Amino acid sequence: MAAAAASLQATAAALHGAVSRSRSAAVPPVARNLRVSAAVRRTGSSRAGPVVARAAVAKDEAASSTSGGHEVLMFEALREAMIEEMTLDPTVCMIGEDVGDYGGSYKVSKGLSEMFGDLRVLDTPIAENSFTGMGVGAAMKGLRPVVEGMNMGFLLLAYNQISNNCGMLHYTSGGQFKIPIVIRGPGGVGRQLGAEHSQRLESYFQSIPGLQMVACSTPYNAKGLLKAAIRSENPVVLFEHVLLYNLKERIPDEDYVCCLEEAEMVRQGSQVTILTYSRMRYHVMQAVKTLVDKGYDPEVVDIRSLKPFDLHAIGNSVRKTHRVLIVEECMRTGGIGASLRSAIIDNFWDDLDALPMCLSSQDVPTPYAATLEDATVVQPAQIVAAVEEICR
Q1: What is the pTM of this model?
Q2: DSSP per-residue string spanning 280-329
Q3: Residue 329 a catalytic site member
Q4: Which of 76, 80, 85, 128 is catalytic?
């Protein structure tokens, strides 16, 4: 580990002086053509504003999956994002367990070590606190590391590095250091993975100052959010759901990014706003089919940005429907839903015709038995019942 850290530090020092942020340095060839839009190149380093201005998003998301492009699974979309960003910027690197020759536990880094070498795709020992700390140091020295947790639950071992280092070093150094690091990996309730492999860490990390959090739910936004996170000057945690890696969607051939601070309108409606993210988006959409058949007209918003919330988009929806249902896989106590419900009450109380409702996972360790596992997570029938209740 010490040798790897020394190598990374030497690489960072060399790149800091030799590589401009114009992303024009010579890079190794990749398998498919990358058409890079000038509109999405890094335009500055201010931490104060949004990472990607809404007006500068390269592709209209509503039409992105219906015209042209190519079909990919979600893990392939994440892999494309890594290839494109590592090609465009030699300071981007990847650190984690089995990310090299093995290609990552869910194949997000498959083939990357052959393309970019084993210093930029660095296999590490099973020591989350060590390699996450090394990633923070690499970011301080000028690199843009992407740290992969083999399972998000394991990153609890690196909580000190994520909290005291990632989140606070920019502040505690008086602005002398920036920490442009991405921490990503699989999480959520899978299929009989057991309690320790079924963690939802959104609730653990949401209170850390200086940290941004986003959750992907489709191949399109997985790629766009990862690319934007890599380009950000902030430390960003990207939550991927273990059951969505084989989700397939058509995405654009052109380079694009998604705003890290912007929600996604999934379905327009008039009667109730359903706010959700990650895997629960699909449970919600199953419930919507039943609700429409029953004569309801729900609006569905994928909040995507878990910190900060996109209160602009959420507020516009609440003012239209006047009713809110939050559906999450996170825990009820201290979860994302609890924080979001509080923010809605604080900001949009006069626009509500009913108290916001929140459907969350049970406050228990996730059981191994499949029937008990299902009972801990919100199911479509519960969403239907909740909408019927809130619309009475």
Answers
A1: 0.83
A2: HHHHHHHHHHHHHHTT--EEEEE--EEES--HHHHHHHHHHH--EEEEEE
A3: no
A4: 128
